[in-house]
Amino acid sequence: MADYGLPDVPFHAGPLLTGHDAYEGMSLSERKRLLGLFVIMTRRLPITYRTFVHRKSDFDDNRQRFEAQLKRDIVNLLLAHLSDFHSYGTVKVYYVGGQQIVTDALRGGIEYALSIDAIVYRDASPRDYRLEQVADFLCTLELTCEKFRNGEQTETDNKFFGDWKSFRVNYLKPIRRKRLES
Question: Which stretches in the chain have pLDDT values below 50?
């Protein structure tokens, strides 16, 4: 980032897009350049990912039903790729601990599908882990995709990603090549 005259700040999509926190005072063009560098880095990383999209309102605000669905999604994904996970001696789960329902579903699903002895849980701080920053970015892209599909994109989404076609071609399609299918 120094080579491009940009500050070395931990990537956090929400504040980057809105210009808050560490990005306060940065111009829109600087924030776009930071996003562009992060996109390039993410495209080059040897990773796969999977996100699950649910609207809480689809579960009539029933926390148990919502958590059960998230846990089922996680278990189905893990079981579909069980041999891959078993090839590792230890599976490390880094989670920032944002929403308790997600924390509970992650723990429940992972412990159901994988050996408890092979799991290590760690708190993740975006400051400390670049992969946590990548996860934040991937979730932001998938959420932005849903917003475009539902006609709910914001002016900020349009400023950073352009219209649906530009977003799909320049951001979503290249990243989706890394998506782990269940």
Answer: none
Instruction: Write out the two tokens for 26.
Output: 């940065």
- CA neighbor of 65 nearest in space, from 96, 111, 105: 105
- Distant-in-sequence, close-in-space partners of 158: CB < 8 Å, separation ≥ 6: none
Q: Collect all residues with Cβ–Cβ distance below 8 Å to 111 and sequence separation of at least 6.
A: 119
Rounded CA-CA distance 172/164 in Å is 10
Selection from 6, 42, 2 nearest residue 27 by Cα: 6
Query: Helix, strand or coil for residue 129?
Result: coil
Rounded to whole angstroms, how far apart are CA atoms 163 and 157?
8
* Inter-residue contact 80 to 74 (CB < 8 Å): no
Rg (CA), the chain: 18
Phi, psi at 121, each rounded to 5°: -100, 135
Q: How far is CA 167 from CA 11, 72, 115, in A?
A: 19, 30, 39
C-alpha 47 chain-centroid distance: 12
H/E run at residue 95:
strand 91-95
Contact 96, 124 (CB under 8 A): yes
Q: Are 172 and 141 in contact (CB under 8 A)?
A: yes
What is the model's pTM? 0.87
Mind listing the pLDDT tens digit for each residue in 10-43? 889 999 999 999 999 999 999 999 999 999 999 9
